[in-house]
Design a protein that fits this description.
- This protein is an alpha/beta fold.
- The chain folds into two domains: 179 residues, P-loop containing nucleotide triphosphate hydrolases (Rossmann fold, 3-Layer(aba) Sandwich); 216 residues, P-loop containing nucleotide triphosphate hydrolases (Rossmann fold), CATH 3.40.50.
- It has 16 helices and 14 strands.
- It has a seven-stranded parallel beta sheet, with helices on both faces. A seven-stranded parallel beta sheet has the order 10-11-9-12-13-8-14.
- Helix 2 crosses helix 3 and helix 5 packs parallel to helix 7.
- The termini are far apart.
Length: 413
């Protein structure tokens, strides 16, 4: 598979996992942590006859579950170890058939796994190893009650491996509750990979899409991952990029599993140059050719920023992280800069008309106004009304902050 030497997380974690100890692992995304637990699990499972579930790997999203499953198949292709996936969004028929045929490793998302547990269509009584991957994201997504219910149905005598990009107190509390004397393996701290460069692009809310299109036209890119805050915006933005001549697709929760897989496959193969995704949908995207991550909407937390930008600059490659910001994003920006330990470079696109007026709020009268308000509720964004506040300088950011950070060009709006 091209492995020449272990990454730091692999070098530190694999011997401890092979020794049978519980591991609390912290590593940034893109550092090779999947192999850090898959390889020792495969080593362990080849010593006995298979056919029963001996390892359970729990992941927050379908995409990540598929990524782990594919890693198991690739790394274990010369073994008899068999892996199956269990997640929602698809029918249970194939999953039931796969489980009946026998599986050594099950890679699952919490909700569908609990369905199988309640229906008694999965037997975890022989399970020896439990892996909770991207545990911080599972907690962010509200899966903690599901995790507790799953833990109540697995053998108490087991090896537990918990991997997370960050180790907040909730994760440490979970570790103390369900793990036995875990060895903490940390690679770096909650900081972005050094191979990623950062830049912010101040822009009025109503000009975000035109600026993004112009930025894409002027930038030398390979594959580009664009993040939005809502699934409705991801769908709409992907359509606008397609209309502008880009090969783009969206990855968001309203898509069926087959369409999500088609979007991912097209992005990996290069059929789509741009993938517009939400945070949840983008978990598990492992495409080494991503040259740019663009935050169309700034993430709500600094940790989420790390998760997003970790999709570029993977392994030995370099990447760029661009963030489009409005004045209302001041607090989020400061939190990200505190985590980075430095101010992010501010860039303006030369020749771009930042003074372009916003479109009329309600061009078609009261009926249109009602539709607009419903659209705002569905999309969850701040809308043109608050954008108007930014235009006259009465937004959340102080005028001094605007002048100091973004200069007179940006201060006009």
């Amino acid at each position: 598979m091209g492995y020449a030497q272990p990454t730091p997380i692999q070098e530190k974690a694999i011997p401890v996992v092979l020794a049978g100890q519980d591991v609390l692992g912290q590593a940034q995304t893109g550092t090779g942590k999947t192999a850090a637990f898959v390889l020792p699990i495969l080593q362990r499972l080849t010593d006995k006859k298979g056919g029963v579930v001996r390892a359970l790997i729990v992941a927050p999203t379908r995409e990540l579950a598929e990524q782990i499953h594919n890693a198991v198949r690739e790394m274990g292709r010369n073994t008899r170890v068999r892996s199956v996936t269990v997640y929602g969004g698809v029918g249970m028929g194939n999953q039931l058939n796969n489980l009946r045929r026998g599986a050594d490793i099950v890679v699952a998302c919490p909700g569908r796994l609990l369905d199988h547990i309640q229906r008694r269509t999965i037997d975890l009584s022989h399970m020896e190893v439990l892996v909770l991957d991207e545990a911080d994201r599972m907690l962010d997504m509200g899966f903690l009650p599901d995790i507790r219910r799953i833990l109540a149905h697995v053998p108490k005598k087991r090896q537990t491996l918990l991997f997370s990009a960050t180790l907040p107190e909730d994760i440490r509390r979970l570790a103390r509750e369900f793990m036995h004397d875990p060895v903490t393996v940390q690679v770096g701290t909650s900081a972005p990979v050094e191979t990623v460069s950062h830049a912010i692009f101040p822009v009025p809310q109503h000009l975000k899409t035109p600026l993004l299109i112009e930025l894409l036209r002027r930038t030398d890119t390979r594959s580009v991952l664009v993040f939005t805050r809502t699934k409705h915006r991801a769908k709409r933005l992907a359509g606008q990029l397609e209309e502008s001549g880009f090969k783009a697709a969206s990855l968001q929760g309203n898509l069926s599993q087959s369409r999500r897989q088609a979007a991912m496959d097209g992005f990996r193969s290069g059929a789509f140059q741009i993938l517009v995704a939400t945070d949840i949908a983008a978990r598990g995207i492992d495409v080494s050719t991503i040259s740019h991550v663009i935050n169309y909407d700034i993430p709500q937390t600094a940790d989420a920023y790390l998760h997003r930008i970790g999709r570029t600059g993977r392994v030995d490659r370099t990447g760029d992280a661009f963030t489009l910001i409005t004045h209302e994003d001041e607090s989020e920006l400061r939190a990200i800069e505190r985590l980075l330990g430095a101010r992010i470079e501010v860039r303006m696109l030369e020749g771009f008309d930042y003074d372009r007026a916003p479109p009329p709020k309600f061009p078609d009268g009261p009926r249109r106004q009602g539709a607009f308000q419903r659209g705002r509720q569905q999309d969850g964004h701040r809308g043109h009304q608050q954008g108007g506040q930014r235009g006259n300088g009465r937004g959340r950011g102080s005028p001094g902050y605007r002048r100091d950070r973004f200069g007179p060009q940006a201060a006009r709006w």
